[in-house]
Specification:
231 residues, alpha+beta, 4-stranded mixed β-sheet, 4 strands, 57% helix, 8% strand
């Protein structure tokens, strides 16, 4: 079993390095946009059958003129993904729109948090992500998100507890469970759809469980854990 983990970690590292190298020339044109991988590649557990799950977040103010550049970056990302043998992006890349960091932080906890996919992008950033484009922007985004969760720390440094972050991780885990039940209970599933549902169940029991509770456990047992320890 350990050899399987080692081989997947090596495979993931090679794919990440190839993606970073191929996308590096784009950094000069997109200095404020971070592209990061999540899923099995983000956890360093990918294999030849794995999808490429990515998010794009911008540190800069977004406007209408940004759309053309966003599309160019998306096309480049798609091209490099195909070169490395990854399957097509889920639902044609509908989840790959550029997310504004300022909007994400502004709407944290609101109904827009879920509706605009900010919640998922933020939690996966903290729980299982690897930067592909612009590591400087990636570090900035991680720090800004953690700052939001730790906004009361400076005034309560001796007694601060990361309850807000713990609650969001728990909420994300419950969301995963609800999404699984919604898909599992659809009537008239084909054998192929049933097989995919079993795979989702397996992922829920292991990789997604580990993703959430690997951070939830230390936070819950030591709620005063520092922000710097989470970076």
């Amino acid at each position: 079993m350990s050899s399987q983990f080692t081989s997947r970690r090596t495979f993931s590292a090679e794919k990440l390095e190839a993606l970073r190298k191929s996308m590096q020339p784009l950094e000069a044109d997109y200095p404020d946009i971070c592209v990061y991988a999540t899923g099995s590649l983000g956890r360093l557990e990918a294999c030849k059958h794995s999808d490429l799950d990515v998010f794009r977040i911008s540190c800069a103010q977004r406007n209408k003129s940004s759309a053309a550049g966003d599309l160019t970056l998306l096309c480049a990302l798609h091209q490099e993904s195909k070169k490395l043998g990854f399957p097509e992006f889920t639902d044609g890349g509908v989840y790959l729109k550029v997310i504004s960091l300022e909007e994400m932080l502004k709407h944290l906890g609101s109904t827009a948090d879920d509706a605009n996919n900010y919640f998922t992008a933020r939690l996966l950033l903290l729980l299982e992500s690897q930067p592909l484009l612009n590591t400087t922007a990636y570090a900035t985004i991680v720090d800004r998100v953690l700052d939001r969760y730790y906004k009361d720390f400076s005034e309560h440094s001796s007694s601060f507890q990361a309850v807000f972050l713990v609650n969001d991780i728990v909420r994300y885990w419950k969301t995963l469970c609800m999404n699984y039940e919604e898909k599992r209970n659809l009537s008239g599933l084909t054998d192929e759809q049933k097989a995919k549902a079993r795979v989702k169940n397996l992922k829920l029991k292991f990789s997604r469980l580990w993703t959430c509770f690997s951070l939830l456990i230390p936070l819950s047992t030591n709620l005063s854990i520092s922000q710097s320890a989470l970076r």
